[in-house]
């Protein structure tokens, strides 16, 4: 393990939702290479679990060489190739085999978040919680373009539809955010089965615990006290 990677500890877990017949989420927890990811297969579409596993398996097989900029480029190319493969697997334009993705890369004191869809990346710093990723969803689009509030946008019939995902369109548009890291930082990657249930206060209380495993346990305990109908996946990374 490199010295840079050794600064970070992590824990990850995924669980099938109480109303689901199979888990369509997948995760990557690879602290020795400074790489983590969460993928959520598109619910209601054929083989969502296949899509999310394809995303994670492809990211896991990447070489971990190069600086952060080179690694971000490698993630972009990797996900574009998975996008092409999933489109080729689909049996026509109405047959979507897709997945969200949110990936975190760490190198020294730098971080990069790469995503498409509505799986999220949060940062817990200085007793404050920040949502780093921006959902690629119809709800977010309604809020930004039509100036609706969250309640108004969420009431629309297509609010949960994704505007970007791996395997959904011929060209995959990824978003990238880079930032510096500080001692004590905690990152959370999660699928919507987590954040649709827990508000910022509950997430913050979980991420204020002492170890990634304790944080992760608290997140899952809190979600599973409720209906937990959707699959839930989370990865916690602590410096």
UniProtKB/TrEMBL annotation:
The protein's name in its UniProt record: SpoIIE family protein phosphatase
Organism domain of life: Bacteria
Family matches, as InterPro entries: PP2C, PPM-type-like_dom_sf, PPM-type_phosphatase-like_dom
PROSITE patterns, alphabetized: PPM_2
Organism name: Pseudomonas poae
GO terms assigned for molecular function: protein serine/threonine phosphatase activity
Positions of the PPM-type phosphatase domain: 9-239
Region of interest called Disordered, as start-end residue ranges on this chain: 1-24
Stored PANTHER family: PROTEIN PHOSPHATASE 1L, PROTEIN PHOSPHATASE 2C
Compositionally biased residues, Basic residues: 10-19
Pfam family membership, one: PP2C_2
């Amino acid at each position: 393990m490199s010295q840079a990677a050794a600064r970070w500890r992590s824990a990850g877990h995924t669980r099938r939702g109480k109303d689901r017949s199979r888990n369509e989420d997948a995760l990557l927890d690879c602290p020795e290479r400074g790489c983590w990811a969460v993928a959520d297969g598109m619910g209601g579409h054929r083989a969502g679990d296949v899509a999310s596993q394809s995303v994670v398996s492809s990211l896991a097989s990447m070489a971990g060489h190069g600086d952060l900029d080179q690694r971000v480029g490698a993630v972009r190319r990797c996900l574009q190739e998975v996008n092409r493969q999933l489109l080729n697997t689909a049996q026509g334009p109405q047959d979507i085999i897709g997945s969200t993705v949110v990936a975190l890369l760490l190198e020294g004191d730098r971080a990069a978040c790469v995503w498409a869809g509505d799986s999220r990346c949060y940062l817990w710093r200085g007793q404050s919680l920040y949502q780093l990723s921006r959902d690629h969803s119809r709800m977010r689009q309604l809020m930004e373009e039509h100036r609706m509030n969250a309640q108004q946008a969420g009431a629309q019939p297509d609010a949960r539809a994704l505007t970007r995902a791996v395997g959904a369109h011929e060209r995959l548009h990824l978003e990238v955010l880079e930032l510096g890291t500080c001692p004590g930082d905690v990152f959370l990657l999660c699928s919507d089965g987590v954040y649709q249930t827990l508000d910022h206060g509950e997430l913050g209380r979980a991420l204020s615990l002492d170890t990634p495993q304790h944080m992760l346990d608290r997140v899952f305990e809190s979600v599973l006290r409720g209906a937990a109908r959707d699959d839930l996946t989370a990865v916690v990374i602590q410096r």
